[in-house]
Write a structure and sequence with these properties.
The chain is an alpha+beta fold. The chain folds into 2 domains: 6-152, Methyltransferase, Cobalt-precorrin-4 Transmethylase, Domain 2 (2-Layer Sandwich), CATH 3.30.950; 156-263, no CATH class. Helix content is 29%, strand content 26%. It contains 9 helices and 15 strands. A 4-stranded mixed sheet has the order 1-2-7-6. Strand 3 and strand 4 form a beta hairpin. Helix 2 crosses helix 4. The chain is globular and about 75 Å long.
């Protein structure tokens, strides 16, 4: 698990997946940097990438910053929303504003690219040392980035990034998971999430959010339509009169995940 605690981040030297800034808050450059560190996190197999304001580059001394991202607007839009609309795919990032050593700091915690390089306004970026560059200028890094993506099994790809705990429990029918393992669900939310993480149905996104994997969604989604990339993968079960398959008895078009849609209580087919 990665940490968005600033003391932990300062223990790292600036790398391709962590960038330290003082006051530079140009929206275009922020968008380019989000693309760059997200792609770099994929290359370096990191769960989260970071941009940190209020830190001196090089020495990592805490200087504080005048950057207030939630007060900043771009073309009438809040900065956070404007940045999100310019990124493709729409990766999740969270903004943490906190005091450190009595000085204001800002941390952007950013999801790695889920299935392809992240672009900002149609251009993919990458970190090369301490510089943000266009990805296409470094074909070896572009090839390596696509290769990293191809190494990720489909079931471990992310169906929904950066989901808060309560929303996870609404999207996934965790009770069906515990039914499957013949165990009661009278346990804490934290333990439920730990169990789902252990089964690779979830991965952590920072300290307060979760990524739902394709495996988790396909097996236990209450509605697959809640997961845009998987909406067309619902299971359709057809029961025929005999092996000739000329006469249909009944059909069931699933809307839920495979586990609860086919084998759940009161469903068409039982275990």
């Amino acid at each position: 698990m990665e940490h968005d605690d600033l003391a932990t981040l300062l223990s790292y030297a600036e790398s391709e997946w962590i960038e330290f800034k003082h006051n530079n808050c140009n929206p275009e450059e922020i968008g380019q940097d989000i693309s760059a560190v997200s792609n770099a996190a994929t290359l370096h197999q990191r769960e989260v990438a970071y941009i940190v304001w209020g830190i001196e580059d090089g020495s990592r001394s805490v200087l504080g910053t005048i950057f207030k991202p939630r007060e900043r607007k771009v073309k009438g839009q809040e900065l956070e929303n404007w940045l999100a609309t310019q990124l493709d795919p729409r990766i999740d990032f969270k903004i943490i504003e906190k005091m450190h050593e009595g000085k204001p700091t800002v941390v952007f915690a950013i999801q790695p690219s889920p299935d392809r390089p992240v672009s900002f306004r149609g251009i993919e970026y990458i970190r090369v040392g301490s510089y943000t560059k266009r990805l296409r200028e470094f074909p070896e890094k572009e090839r390596a980035l696509w290769a990293k993506r191809s190494q990720v099994p489909f079931e471990r790809e992310i169906a929904a990034p950066g989901i808060r705990t309560q929303e996870v429990l609404k999207l996934l029918d965790h009770a069906s998971y515990f039914e499957l393992i013949n165990q009661a669900t009278a346990i804490s939310q934290a333990e439920i999430l730990r169990r789902l993480e252990r089964e690779k149905l979830l991965t952590r996104f920072g300290d307060q959010k979760w990524n739902i994997t394709n495996l988790g969604a396909l097996l236990f989604a209450r509605r697959l339509s809640d997961f845009e990339s998987l909406a067309r993968k619902a299971v359709r079960v057809i029961e025929y009169r005999d092996r000739n398959r000329t006469e249909t008895i009944r059909e069931h078009d699933g809307v839920e995940g495979v586990r609860i849609g086919i084998f759940g209580p009161d469903r068409l087919y039982k275990r």
